[in-house]
Amino acid sequence: MHANFRLPRIRLSSLGLSWPLLVAVAVCVRFLVGSTTQMLSDPDTHLHLASGHWILQHLSVPDVDPFSYTMAGQPWIAHEWLAQCLLAVFYDWGGWTGLVLLTVSCYALTLAYLLRYLLARMPPIYALFFTTLAYVALRTHLLARPHVLSWLLLAVWAGTLIKSSERNLSPPWWLLGLMLLWANLHGSFTLGLALLPAIGLEALLNSPRASRWQTLKSWSFFFVLAVLAAMITPSGWKGLWFTFQVLDLKSLNGIVEWMPPGSYGLLMLEFTLAVLLGLACTGYLRLPVIRLLLVLGLLHQALTHVRYISLFGLLTPLLIASPFGELYAARTAGQQQATSLDDIFTRLAAPARRSTIAVAVVVVVLTGFITGQTGRHVPAAANTPQAAVDAALRAGAAGHVLNADNFGGYLMSRGIPVFIDGRADLYGDRHMDAYTALGSNQAEKIQKVLDDFNIAWTLLPPGAGTLLYLNMRADWRKVYEDETAVVHIRHPSS
Fold first, then answer.
1. Would you say residue 9 has pLDDT above 50?
2. Which of 370, 402, 431 corresponds to the end of one domain?
3. For residue 364, what are the contacts with CB-CB under 8 A and spacing of at least 6?
4. pLDDT at 438 over 90
5. Does 354 lie in the same domain as 427?
């Protein structure tokens, strides 16, 4: 005979766990332990670190460019100054792992907030599904850059405004503090301001006729205060104009993140649209006209610029949550859903205990510390020409450098004034056109740039067309080459 032996049943909910907490921890651990190639692949990460260190060192926010020789002393709006300081602090604390930890934490908290918002409006299985779609969309732009720090603020801002509209309430005053923080973190705060009148109009239309005047006054007054809060930055009112200044640049068409999405991004958008269309055709989703227009506007931006896929994926679930949840509840009223799986999903929908959250934070930080010791988190070599710059300095390179734009951030971090970097808003179309002319392989255009800017040495990737011209010139000599960069130095007599 064999004695019956049963393992004790442990209810996950009794441990104080919840779906948002589990998702947040899983996302953090997955990226800390796994590959962070994409996250540290952007050359602008070096740029933001250099800016953050400059601000912390000088205890001031620059209003003119301190990093290039081509735009030295020209007005510059450092609209991401606070985020750059945070990136620099985390880098000084934990190196590249510190940056990864900060980035994935913001990513995970954004998903956790979104999931908590959805759980209040629909069954857990659907809340998890829409959060998964957001996870994929946000991942398309998951980089160690300031915009990731603003994702949570965007989600909280939009979610709170939508909640206020649905409950016929005025926006809470604490959102003004959020806008103040957001305006100093990243330029996407203008999207938050753009959402405000649209959601306010929905609140006006949904409010009882007798209270519409009061609704109009309260939302309008809040909008004015939000605009004023957004101007409490080192740039003042110029920060509001910055977004329009950037969008007016013709040279944006040559920057990858401002191009239309490729196959991966289009596949994500296609799948999301198929889900929304399927829900609409089966009677589970019917959007009010204002929310429909917002979703279509976000879709248009996502199809035009790859960087907006993340915003479409984050905001769309917030906009459809209540309409979907209400129709789903109405169509499934009275149906039995008493399976054990449903019970688990429902129990984990409750908020997590504070003690469990504290344990989760410790687990994430320890995971970051352990993985940081392995040295697995490193920036992309294609944007980090350390060996080439070291060789150039040993060879006596001095004076103005002609660098590729993806090397600009690294040169800034080394204190070397640059020809160009990722700040298209600073350089403008004219300078960007001069840089683009280098890729034309036309000798006269290349020589004009070399002469006009008094170039003394170059730092370019191996595939750059300008290298063919330099290799044929007797007044230039190649002093270094590897798989990342090639260095040429002009003879002093030339």
1. no
2. 370
3. 25, 28, 29, 32, 101, 105
4. no
5. no
